């Protein structure tokens, strides 16, 4: 058994292993998804380790590179994402060996921390390897009690029409005491426009704000899920009114049962009208793992958006 860094020729074998171990589930495994996720990422190519037995790849562990900013301080991070062990090799400690080996590699790269949103089944394993529970994100929901089926439907978003504000957002020097994603050039295009998993839509005036959302079908009806919101200094009361008016139009046209917003970025000054329901701590559960950082990660002023934490 050998653990080694993956190379470009391993992609097909890795994707086949993911299918054999995990199935297609909600997220289909494909070359397109792998390349978008692990090669096109503007923060850098994903570090990947594989376990190989007699020339056959039987395990894989992948971390997705990410960057955060707190003021002028750059925080290099990774998100623990894809992992798979072939059914014939499960229960032999490969997952732990691959994960801890990859963490050692990240120390040499100067990565500060790893974060993820594990489910109830995988969380205990991460905690045993040094992850700590930060907690669940707050979730704000607004239900449409007068839902009627609309004859209209909002057109698919034309992302090329807002290329100017995307460029401005990615070039703007946001300064905050909170820790937010480092929105570098190419980030919005990669994360939302070219994402092969979901069709993301937007609401924007092209100058002062950009709200990104997706429509999700659920058991109780359509959900309008707000995943990110960017506002520039000229965003004021008039722009706020326009934003909420446009949001209501989309909710009506799409026959949305409820709208959700989860995250910390606008916890105290959310400019979106979300009704009177209280904020609930039932969003994704976040765990953190120190790599090179010596700070108390749990006490840092995190300001995640759902776009930083959505399962992908």
From TrEMBL:
Limits of the N-acetyltransferase domain: 1-152
Organism for this UniProt entry: Algoriphagus aquimarinus
One annotated GO molecular function: acyltransferase activity, transferring groups other than amino-acyl groups
CDD domains named in the record: NAT_SF
The protein's name: N-acetylglutamate synthase, GNAT family
Signal peptide boundaries: none
Lineage top rank: taxon: Bacteria
InterPro entries, A to Z: Acyl_CoA_acyltransferase, GNAT_dom
